[in-house]
Amino acid sequence: MEQAKGVLAERWQVNMDDAFTAMPSYARNHQLRLTEIAKEIAEGTLDTDQIPSPAT
Questions:
Q1: 12-24, pLDDT tens digit by residue?
Q2: How many Cβ atoms from other residues are within 10 Å of residue 24's Cβ?
C-alpha cells in the first residue's frame, strides 16, 4: 500500500494522503479490492493514467 501511495504521490506531485484518497474510489468504481489496486500500482501493471488524480 505504501509503495502504491508513493508511486501516485510522485507521479501527481501530491502528498501521500492525497495520493491515497484516489485509490479507494477507483477500486470501488471498478469493483476491485483496494489491495489488488495497490499491488498493481506498485508492480507497474496498472495504467495509473486511468485513476483520476486528486484536485490540487
A1: 999 999 999 999 9
A2: 11
User: Under a CB-based contact definition with an 8 Å cutoff, are residues 16 and 9 in contact?
Assistant: yes
**Amino acid identity for residue 33 in this structure:** R
CA distance 55 to 24: 15
Distances (CA, A) of 42 to 5, 56: 8, 23
Structure pTM? Answer: 0.86
What's the pLDDT at 54? 82
Per-residue DSSP letters for 7-51?
Answer: HHHHHHT--HHHHHHHHHHHHHHTT--HHHHHHHHHHT-S-GGGS
Q: How far is CA 18 from CA 7, 35, 37, 56, in A?
A: 12, 17, 16, 9
